[in-house]
Amino acid sequence: MTAAKGLSARSLAGTAVFALRLIWAADRRRFTAILVHQLFSAATLSLVMLFTKELLGGLGGDGRADLWSNLMPLLMAAMVLMSINGAFRGLAQSWQRVLAVKTDRHILSLVLRSTMKTDLLTFEDPAFYDRLQRAVFASRVQPITLVSSAVAIIQTSFSLIAVGATFVAMTWILLPLCLLAPIPLIRAAKQERDARYGLNETLAENRRVRDYLERLLTGRDEAKEIRAFGIGKTLFDRWDSCYEKEIADTTVVQRRHAKRKIAARLAGDLITVAIIGGVWLYVGSGGIDVPTAIAALLGLFLLNTRVQSITFLFTALGDVLLYLADLRLFAAARPAEAAEIPRRASSGSLTARGVGFRYPGASEPTLRGVDIDLPAGGIVALVGTNGSGKTTLAKVLAGLYPPSTGTVSIDGEPVLEPEVLRDRAAVLFQDFVKYRLTVTDNIEFGRPGAEDPARRLAEAARSAAVDTIAERLDHGYDTVLGAEFSGGTDLSLGQWQRLALARAFYRDSPFVILDEPTASLDAQAEAELFDKLRDLFEGRTVLFVSHRMSNVRGADRIYTLDRGRIVESGDHESLLAADGIYAKLFRLQAAGYEERVTTQSETV
Ligand SMILES: Nc1ncnc2c1ncn2[C@@H]1O[C@H](COP(=O)(O)OP(=O)(O)OP(=O)(O)O)[C@@H](O)[C@H]1O
C-alpha cells in the first residue's frame, strides 16, 4: 500500500496533524518558543500596517496633535515588538536547528522501532521494502524541511490572520481580494508536489538498484571479488545509467513545471494589478480614504512577498507530508508489541505435524505436509539437496516463519505464539551475521541481558573454542572486529563461524538449530565439534542441517527432505539399508573420499 499520489485533502490534513505531533513530541519547549516568536512577528506586521495608516492619516489631516497622540503609542508598541522580535530571531534559528535534529531522531526511532517489530516473513515482501524505503527517506531527509516549512507556514498563517484582522478593522471589503492573489502560485506548488512525488514513486526501484550498486562499489567485503573479476567498470556503468534515467525523468518533470510556475506567477501578478486598480476605483468612489487604501496595499504587498517566499516551502512541505503519510502507514501497520512470553518448563520435545509453507508471492509451496519429531535431548539431522527446503524448515521450527498449514508443538502442546519458539531456540544460521563490534558483543548478543554474563561468556567461548582466538587478539574480548574501525581487526571465516557458534552456546536454550554449523571450519575443528556435539549440548534438543554426510551418521535420527517433503527418516544404518536418497548422497560422498585417498596414496 502506498500513499496515493493525489492524497485526499482529509488524509493530507491528518498527516499534517501527525507531522505537528511529531515535532511536538520531539521537543515541546522549543516548538512552543518558536510559535510564540512567530506570533510576535505576526503582531509586528499588523502594527506596521496600523502605523502606516495612522501616519498617512495624520499627515493628510490638519491636527498634528492627533498625529502625535495616535502615532506615538503605536510607534512605541511596534518598536518594542520589533526589538523583541529581532532579539529572538537569532535564538529562534538555533531553536529551529536543534528542533530539526530532535525531530530527526524522533522520526527515525519511529521507523526503527516499527522495523524491529516487523516479523521475518514481512522482510520477504518487496512491497514492504518499498514502504520501508519511503519511510526511511521520510525520516532521513525530511525532518529539517518539515520543521522549517512548518515554521514558515505557521508564520504565514499568523501573518494572514494578523493582516486579515487589520483589514477587517480598516475595511473588510479588501480582504477577499487580498486572499485571491496567491492562489495561482499555491496551485502551481501543489501540482509540482504531486509531480515530484509521482516521480519519486516511479524512480523508487531505480534508486534501490543504484543504492545497491553504490554499496557494492564501496563495500569492504565486496572489494576483493570486484577487483579479482575486474567488474568495477561494469558495475559503475550500471550505476551511471541509473543516474542517467533519474536525471532524464527529473528534467522532464521540472521542465513541465517551470512553464506552469511562470504562468502562475504572471496570473498572480495580474490579480495584484487588478486589486490595485480596484482599490484605486474604490478610493475614487469614496468607499475608503487614501491612508486606509495605502495601508491595505502595503499589507497586500507584505503578505504577497511572504506567500511567494513560502510557495517553494509549501512544495517541500507537500513532499514531506506525502512521505510522512507513508511513514504513518508504515508505523500504523506494525503489530503491537509482543506480549509477555508465557514461561513453561524448559527442554522437551519439538514436533511438526503437516507443516506447509509458501513464501509471499511464490507460486509453489516450499514445504508440504512436513512431519518431524525432535525427541527431548536428542540429536536430529536434516539432509537434502540444495533448495529442498532445509533452511526454510529450520526457520519455521525456530518460530521465524509461521507455518502456512499444520502445527509446531512443544511437548505435544501446539505453539500458538511464535515468540515462545523464538525464546526457546538458539539458531546458528548458514549466513550468520558478523557484527563489526567487540568479541564480547558478538557472543553476548546470544541473549542480551542474561544473568551472570561473565560466566556464560567464558563457558560459551570455551565450548566454541573462541577462547584461544580471543587470547591472541590485541585487546582480547574487547577487540573490535572490523578493520574499518580504528584499532579494529578481522577474523577468518572459520573463526567468525566459531564466534557465531559461541553465540548459540551463550543463548543456553532448550532447542538448538544449527544450519550448516561447520561449513567454514577446518577438518579438525569440524570433527571435534561433531565428536563433542552430544557433550556440548547435553540435555538440549538439537536439529542440525548438514551436507557433509560423515557428520550426519552419528545423529539419533536423520530426515531427508526432497522438494519440500520428508521422504525418508531413520538412523544411518536403516537409511543405508533403505537405499533411498540418503544412501545415494552418502555413497556419492564416500566414493569421492575413497577415490581421493586412493589417488593420493598412488601418487605417493
Ligand atoms: N525469500 C524467498 N522467496 C521465495 N522463495 C524462496 C525464498 N527463500 C528461499 N526460497 C526458495 O525456497 C526453496 C528452499 O530454500 P531453502 O533455503 O530452504 O533450501 P535449502 O534446502 O536450505 O538449500 P541449501 O542446501 O542450498 O541451503 C528454494 O527453492 C528457494 O528458491
Short description, anyone?
By secondary structure, the chain is α/β, with parallel strands linked by helices. It folds into 2 domains: 324 residues, ABC transporter type 1, transmembrane domain (ABC transporter transmembrane region fold); 194 residues, P-loop containing nucleotide triphosphate hydrolases (Rossmann fold, 3-Layer(aba) Sandwich).
Unreliable stretches = 1-5, 336-345
Number of distinct helices: 19
Sheet-strand content, in percent, reads: 5-15%
CATH class category of the largest domain: Mainly Alpha
Biggest β-sheet: strands ordered side by side in the sheet: 6-7-8-3-9-10
Q: Helix share of residues?
A: 55-70%
| Oligomeric state of shown chains | single chain
CA(first)-CA(last) distance: 67 Å
Write up this protein.
- With 604 residues, this protein is α/β, with parallel strands linked by helices.
- The chain folds into 2 domains: 10-333, ABC transporter type 1, transmembrane domain (ABC transporter transmembrane region fold), CATH 1.20.1560.10; 350-432 and 493-603, P-loop containing nucleotide triphosphate hydrolases (Rossmann fold), CATH 3.40.50.300.
- 66% of the residues lie in helices and 9% in strands.
- It has helices spanning 9-26, 28-60, 64-117, 126-171, 174-180, 183-218, 220-229, 232-284, 290-333, 390-397, 418-424, 439-444, 453-463, 467-471, 493-507, 523-536, 549-552, 572-578, 581-603, and strands at residues 350-357, 367-374, 379-384, 405-410, 413-414, 425-428, 511-515, 541-545, 557-562, 565-570.
- Strands 6-7-8-3-9-10 form a 6-stranded mixed beta sheet, sandwiched between helices. Strands 2-1-4-5 form a 4-stranded antiparallel beta sheet.
- Helix 1 (9-26) packs across helix 2 and helix 1 (9-26) packs across helix 9 (290-333).
- The longest helix is centred in the first third of the chain and has 54 residues, at 64-117.
- The protein is elongated, with a radius of gyration of 35 Å.
- The two termini are 67 Å apart.
- The site of adenosine-5'-triphosphate (ATP) has 12 residues, from helix 10.
- Residues 124, 359, 362, 366, 384, 386-392 line the site of adenosine-5'-triphosphate.
